[in-house]
Specification:
Blueprint lengths: L1 E8 L6 H18 L3 E9 L8 H13 L3 E4 L2 H4 L2 H13 L3 E4 L4 E2 L4 H34 L4 H4 L16 H9 L4 H10 L6 H17 L4
Parallel strand pairs: 1-2, 1-3, 3-4
Antiparallel strand pairs: 4-5
Length: 219
């Protein structure tokens, strides 16, 4: 298994240097105990109550780039404290990363309370995905009812299978806006039909269109 070592202390006092090195050595021993390949060691001095830490962000990047399997920490408080710890545990769970600690001499055993919170977060995210999909379907249905014809705009779609359209059909944005769809609904509708577009992009393109129309008004 590929492992990342993460060591953290909360202050920048010189005395904490010893603690960082001790954490590193103890976790290297833990990795050896389980025959893990340590691919990176990350050490930092930062509060555990925030997720805005260069070290932990480096850990998350390495997990994605190097396909790590395990994160090694001294104890769960080194990962974080309070909400920051829960948020990071959730990120690790989503990536399928196991957490081993020196204090457990093996895989981290979460408390019943922490496990319950993570379960609740997972359920909430699932319902958020369902709501997002329902909003897309609703926007698509309203768009078609109001005259949007995707087959007319997705030209040569069979020649670009699997690739998203980058261009944004301003005429359809205008049409859907006139039919009282919100910018979020328009963006969701266009994404459903293959256009890679955000709410902000839709709003910007519509604003540019209105500006152009204003400039074209004869004086």
């Amino acid at each position: 298994m590929k492992a990342i070592i993460y060591a953290r202390v909360s202050t920048k006092k010189e005395a904490q240097e010893t603690s960082l090195e001790r954490q590193k050595e103890e976790l290297l021993q833990l990795a050896g105990l389980y025959s893990m390949e340590v691919i990176k060691v990350v050490q930092e001095k930062a509060s555990g109550y925030t997720i805005e830490r260069e070290g932990i962000l480096e850990v998350l990047d390495t997990i994605k780039e190097e396909s790590a399997d395990v994160l090694l920490i001294q104890d769960e408080t080194r990962l974080g404290r309070g909400n920051a710890k829960i948020a990071l545990m959730h990120c690790l769970n989503k990536e399928g990363i196991k957490v081993y600690t020196h204090s457990h001499n093996g895989e981290l055993q979460l408390s019943d309370a922490d496990s319950m919170v993570l379960d609740i977060i997972g359920i909430v995210e699932e319902y958020q995905r369902k709501i997002h999909n329902l909003k897309i379907k609703r926007g698509m249905k309203r768009a078609v009812e109001n005259g949007f014809r995707p087959e007319r705009n997705l030209k040569n779609q069979h020649l670009n299978s699997g690739r998203e359209k980058k261009e944004v059909p301003i005429e359809e944005i205008v049409r859907l806006r006139k039919n009282e769809l919100t910018f979020a609904e328009i963006a969701a509708t266009l994404r459903g039909f293959g256009y890679d577009v955000s709410k902000a992009t839709v709003h910007r393109r519509y604003a540019e269109y209105e500006k152009d129309q204003h400039l074209d008004i004869p004086k």
